[in-house]
Design goal:
The complex is a heterodimer of chains A (about 325) and B (about 775). With about 325 residues, chain A is of the alpha+beta class. Chain A has 3 domains: about 1-50; about 60-115 and about 160-215, 2-Layer Sandwich (Uridine Diphospho-n-acetylenolpyruvylglucosamine Reductase, domain 3); about 225-325, 2-Layer Sandwich (Enolase-like, domain 1). In chain A, about 30% of the residues lie in helices and about 20% in strands. In chain A, the strands form 3 sheets. In chain A, strands 4-5-8-6-7 form a 5-stranded antiparallel beta sheet. Chain B starts with a strand and ends in a 12-residue tail after the last helix. In chain B, helix 10 (about 390-410) packs parallel to helix 18. In chain B, strand 1 (about 5-10) and strand 2 (about 15-25) form a beta hairpin. The longest helix of chain B is centred in the last third of the chain and has 27 residues, at about 540-565. Among the domains of chain B are: about 65-140, Aldehyde oxidase/xanthine dehydrogenase, a/b hammerhead (Aldehyde Oxidoreductase, domain 3, Alpha-Beta Complex), CATH 3.90.1170.50; about 425-470 and about 615-770, Aldehyde Oxidoreductase, domain 4 (2-Layer Sandwich), CATH 3.30.365; about 470-610, 2-Layer Sandwich (Aldehyde Oxidoreductase, domain 4). Chain B contains 19 helices and 31 strands. Chain B has about 775 residues and is of the alpha+beta class. The chains are: A alpha+beta (about 325), B alpha+beta (about 775). The interface of A and B includes residues 1, 303, 317 and 330 of A.
């Protein structure tokens, strides 16, 4: 790791200005979990880290705050452990936050950092290999070891988006508040940048822009949700696939259905195909199977990751059963 | 005492018998089935437990001799390359740099990504790593092959241009056949043979043939390979080393630097895991001892060379992968007529890709057996002994193949095993386990769920282990002193690699001298303390404790003589010795008071262990060691929607001779099962075939079982009185991990009715076995 200076600004403006001057050499630091990993691996060598945790003049960076309209605002510095323990949040978000990494990491890792972390692809993470993400001309996963890579929306890069919270938040129609020269609120889906747009990045924040908070709109009446994940290891591992589902069951049929798959695509993958199968229908095991098949119909696996098709279908069915409170088959 | 023949009662459970053994002069009466012990065999917590959990224990990584400087190694990034140019001068001028060293020279052919090229030492570790970038180096990359199957093709790039000499360490299983021939990247080894396997297959009415494969597995000890080396004079040095064999480090350093072995002082106070990869001053794929010594000489300062996790994966050894073609034949009644295994595996640029003795030596009622295992060279770091070299991979293939045959024969896999197993202890373990595990009822539930095609399934499997009693005679000289102040100190140059030998030797001394365990000081961990064995091949307890006991008995004899004098006994045998001290008739003297009469500072006696004498229940065929038996039953839960397997329960029944300390023994078995579970379910070295590099040299994507991945573990000791040595100890370290992955794989087969013939048993493979993966050609790649 290269030596660096830790700067601890107390105002949001000071923090943003500092990074804005030298956006390549100065990086924001929140929990520092992924950032320090990358620095130790030699992938990033910033001269300065700008600590966000000392900022005192911007309340919206912190806390889980209900808003008057019935929604909720989640500060970017809220930890995964805090999200997992917040009884007022939807099950899909609590379950996702509580499933990630380890208790120690969840105590440190933040909401903002989780959404903006870099991919886990082992070609990207290997400092000796120059892949598309690092300015090379090919995604090395295409002809390489691509067991953990994308089956949907891939190309030219086939990473999967690493954020576990992203799928859950998309299922809750989240948006994000961004501090910048022009403060803005954008749908969470628009925060993510797919590889066709730019394979070297995964989010759309400009230099010196900062994710302030995630905004959850009021829940529709009778909303239910669930998160399901499969990992090769049950202690401290990354998802192979995850499924996040929310739906409203106020009238006996499912409405406002959201189906999002994680770790299947370079961005969190909302399946409008599955939502169309489910919307305005009564829950049933058979319907869930059809929805799962529809969600994976567009999938184009690589050589070693076709297993993600049945796996994603299985997890999606599991999440739908749980969200709709329909007992899973024995 | 002259050489004498003694009667011993040996055996296990209610199967005890009398044998006669010839004992050399001075050897104490061996503990056998009739011996009642008060301290040995009782659950004493580790003596050093508090030091370990509080951080007071100082490992090699913690050593900071005055003036310490730090080494870093430049490693070849290419799987195969000729070193064209190497210029160290720019690094010499880098901040903090005190010494630079070329390890390879221009023109050298480098054979794996991670091989030593150059090294340097600097004042801080950060300076050392930063200075590596200043070394000017140029390579000509060469064709390479890292995939085992690809390396077997006739046109594959050749790894070695000359004959390769086998490298073996104290971690390897003694008696492994040697002698070989080499062609291309293939190195043929002699086979294990009995009967006529081709004839056996011709006679068979039912056959099963399939190919089984296992992954390369890295040792991943928590403490990485490390050495801290200080020159004490131009011809003598001290080395702190994370090692399983203090004397192997001493001898290597003496040889490398042309020193007298007694001028090399090696210290291993505490050690953070080795699993077979830590013998000698170097790692199997990195010349750590040479580098540390040369840099320390140049820098005129002690040097610490502590590998990082990436280096640990790349160049410190591994368990070879395997591709095993198994052919089984059986008569109509289900009796095996042939077991044939043709195995290939790659230990990278090293040798040692065997499959152990599981297929050859467990199901011995089969009259015709042939097991061949051959090395395939690839451009990857060299393999080295890894906890039961060859056995876990061999067990996986033969045990799963037997289960597949059992299905064809319509037989219970446990019955098939019992029908072909002749080892009385192992048969006892199978029967005991069947009851305790509730095998028959569990199998019914498994079959019922499979038949009803449930989403969640259970599975059960059973597998066996075989290992030898490799306790070494004449290797250990233990020294015991009792001081005039009543202090008791045991000294020996052995290392405690985590198995608990420190506590066990204290128990032996406490038992013999009838003193409280807390009063026994154990000094181990340096070569100055007298000859000892390396901890490999599951031989520490069986090699060390008999020597310790001999020393303690010799001290006791002198104490009795002293007491006899003090208490005016007519004959030495009139002296009664107990926990208070000595007694003759109505007269007694307390231990501490007796010690005050010791002439000089202390009574000191040494003890050694003769070669193994008794042998129960039978000598291993064709060898000279007793086969140690073990059996494990595993239960899994499997989700057919996700392919996820969880090992939920392992029942382990093991023979480890006399159980010296049930806590440390259980801990070793538990550790073996966790290692085996991790190997079964998630650990795997992943190499990129096009770049020839390891993709997961970390502990993030190299997946070692964590707390939630560990099954509930029940351990049953089927204690065997072997009469092999005077304490009756034999080994447990390696047997404990041999059958775990095999049993889990058999359990998965029972759950879904289709075998998963490759380890690890990850969801992709399970879903493939379930037929759940669409077969359409992939879009790309």
């Amino acid at each position: 790791m290269q030596p660096f200076a830790l700067i601890r600004p107390t105002t949001l403006l000071a923090a943003r200005d500092r990074v804005h001057e030298h956006p390549r050499a100065r990086l924001f630091r929140a929990g520092g979990v992924d950032l320090l990993d990358r620095m130790k691996e030699g992938l990033d060598a910033p001269a300065e880290l700008i600590d966000l945790r000392t900022i005192a003049d911007e309340k919206s960076l912190r806390g889980i705050n209900p808003d008057p309209a019935g929604g909720c605002q989640l500060g970017a510095l809220v930890t995964l452990a805090e999200l997992a323990a917040a009884a007022e949040l939807d099950a899909v978000l609590r379950e996702a936050a509580g499933s990630a990494a380890t208790p120690g990491i969840r105590n440190l890792a933040t909401l903002g950092g989780n959404l903006l972390q870099r991919p886990r692809c082992w070609y990207y993470r290997n400092v000796d290999l120059v892949c598309l993400k690092k300015g090379g001309d090919a995604c090395l996963a295409v002809t390489g070891e691509n067991k953990y890579h994308a089956i949907l929306g891939g190309g030219p890069s086939f990473i999967v988006h690493p954020s576990t919270l992203a799928a859950a938040l998309l299922a809750l129609d989240a948006s994000v508040d961004i501090a910048g020269d022009t403060p803005r609120n954008i749908p969470l889906a628009d925060l993510f940048v797919g590889p066709k747009q730019d394979p070297t990045r995964e989010h759309s924040l400009g230099p010196g822009e900062l994710l302030l908070r995630v905004v959850l709109p009021p829940a529709p009446p009778g909303r239910r949700s669930a998160y399901a994940v499969a990992k090769e290891k049950q202690s401290h591992d990354w998802p192979l696939v995850e499924a996040a589902v929310s739906l409203s069951l106020a009238t006996g049929v499912m409405t406002q259905v959201r189906v999002v798959l994680g770790h299947v695509a370079p961005t969190p993958w909302r399946s409008r195909e599955a939502e169309a199968v489910l919307e305005n229908q009564a829950p049933s095991a058979d319907l869930f199977r059809k929805a799962a098949a529809a969600a994976l119909a567009p999938a184009r696996p690589l050589r070693h990751n076709a297993y993600k098709l049945p796996l994603a279908q299985g997890l999606l069915r599991e999440a739908l059963h749980r969200a709709a409170d329909l007992p899973l088959p024995e | 005492m002259a050489d004498g023949t003694r009667k011993l009662k040996v055996g296990f459970a209610d199967q005890l018998r009398d044998i006669e053994v010839a004992l050399p002069a001075g050897e104490p009466q061996p503990w056998d089935a009739t011996t009642k012990l008060d301290v040995v065999g009782k659950p004493h917590p580790r003596i050093e437990a508090a030091a370990k959990v509080t951080g007071a224990a100082r490992y090699t990584h913690d050593q900071r001799p005055a003036g310490l400087v730090h080494a870093a190694v430049l490693r070849c990034p290419h799987p195969c390359a000729v070193l064209d140019a190497l210029d160290l001068e720019p690094a010499r001028g880098a901040p903090g740099v005190l010494a630079v060293l070329a390890v390879a020279k221009p023109g050298d052919r480098l054979l794996f990504a991670g091989q030593d090229v150059a090294a340097l030492a600097a004042t801080t570790p950060q300076q050392a790593h930063a200075a590596l970038a200043r070394i000017a180096v140029r390579y000509s990359p060469q064709p390479f092959v890292v995939d085992t199957t690809a390396a077997m093709q006739p046109d594959a790039p050749l790894v070695h241009r000359a004959q390769v000499r086998e490298r073996s360490t104290e971690g390897d299983e003694p008696g492994t056949p040697t002698g070989s021939s080499q062609r291309g990247n293939l190195r043929m080894s002699p086979s294990q043979k009995k009967g006529d396997v081709d004839k056996g297959l011709r006679q068979a009415k039912v056959t099963h043939e399939a190919t089984y494969s296992t992954q390369a597995h890295t040792h991943s000890a928590l403490e990485t390979h490390s050495i801290v080396l200080r020159w004490d004079s131009p011809t003598s040095l001290t080395a702190w080393c994370s090692t399983q064999g203090i004397f192997s480090v001493r001898d290597e350093l003496a040889e490398v630097f042309g020193l007298k072995p007694q001028d090399v002082h090696v210290i291993t106070d505490y050690m953070g895991g080795g699993f077979g990869a830590k013998f000698g001053a170097s790692a199997p794929g990195s010349r750590l001892g040479f580098i540390a010594g040369e840099l320390a000489r140049q820098a005129r300062a002690p040097v610490a060379l502590l590998l990082d996790r990436r280096e640990e994966h790349l160049c410190t050894g591994n368990r070879p992968d395997s591709i095993q073609q198994v052919t089984l034949g059986a008569a109509a009644d289900g009796s095996l007529t042939a077991i044939k295994v043709l195995a290939h595996g790659s230990g990278g640029i090293g040798t040692g890709a065997g499959v152990g003795r599981n297929a050859f030596a467990i199901y011995t009622k089969c009259p015709n057996i042939r097991v061949e295992s051959h090395d395939v060279f690839t451009h990857a770091g060299p393999a080295t002994a890894f906890r039961a070299p060859g056995h876990p991979q061999g067990a996986f293939a033969i045990e799963l193949a037997l289960d597949e045959l059992a299905v064809k024969l319509g037989k219970d896999p446990l019955e098939l095993r019992l029908a072909h197993n002749e080892h009385p202890v192992r048969r006892h373990q199978f029967e005991l386990g069947r009851k305790q595990f509730d095998w028959d009822n569990k199998r019914k539930r498994v079959a019922d769920e499979r038949q009803r095609n449930t989403r969640l399934r259970h599975g059960v499997g059973v597998a066996a282990s075989i290992w030898g009693d490799f306790g070494r005679g004449k290797a250990v000289v233990a020294s015991l002193s009792v001081g005039r102040d009543g202090s008791i100190e045991l000294r020996n140059g052995l290392q405690d690699i985590g198995g608990g030998i420190t506590t066990v030797v204290a128990q032996v001394v406490a038992e013999v001298l009838r003193r409280p365990l807390a009063d026994i000081r154990v000094r181990i961990g340096t070569s100055e303390l007298g000859p000892s064995v390396g901890s490999g091949g599951s031989n520490t307890t069986s090699s060390v404790t008999p020597a310790v006991r001999a020393a303690a008995e010799a001290v006791l004899q002198q104490l009795r003589e002293l007491a006899g004098k003090q208490l005016a006994a007519r004959r030495p045998e009139d002296v009664l010795w107990d926990s208070k001290g000595a007694r003759v008739g109505g007269k007694s003297i307390a231990f501490v008071d007796l010690c005050k009469h010791i002439a000089g500072e202390a009574i000191v006696a040494t003890g050694t262990r003769p070669d193994t004498y008794g042998a129960y229940p039978s000598r291993f065929m064709g060898g000279n060691s007793v086969a140690i038996a073990g059996v494990q039953f595993a239960e899994v839960e499997l989700d057919t929607w996700t392919g996820l397997v969880r090992a939920t329960h392992v029942l382990a029944l093991h023979d480890c001779g006399r159980v010296m300390n049930p806590l440390t023994c259980r801990s070793q078995i538990t550790g073996g099962i966790i290692l085996g579970t991790s190997y079964a379910l998630s650990e795997q070295r992943v190499m990129d075939k096009r770049h020839g590099v390891m993709l997961n040299p970390n502990l993030d994507s190299y997946k070692i079982a964590g707390a939630r991945d560990v099954p509930a573990i029940d351990v049953v000791f089927t204690e065997v009185h072997t009469g092999a040595n005077n304490t009756g100890a034999i080994g447990i370290g390696e047997p404990a991990t041999i059958p775990t992955a095999a049993a889990i794989a058999c359990a998965v087969f029972s759950a879904i009715g289709t075998p998963v013939r490759s380890l690890p048993l990850t969801p992709d493979r399970v879903l493939a076995a379930l037929g759940a993966i669409p077969t359409a050609a992939p879009a790309r790649g």
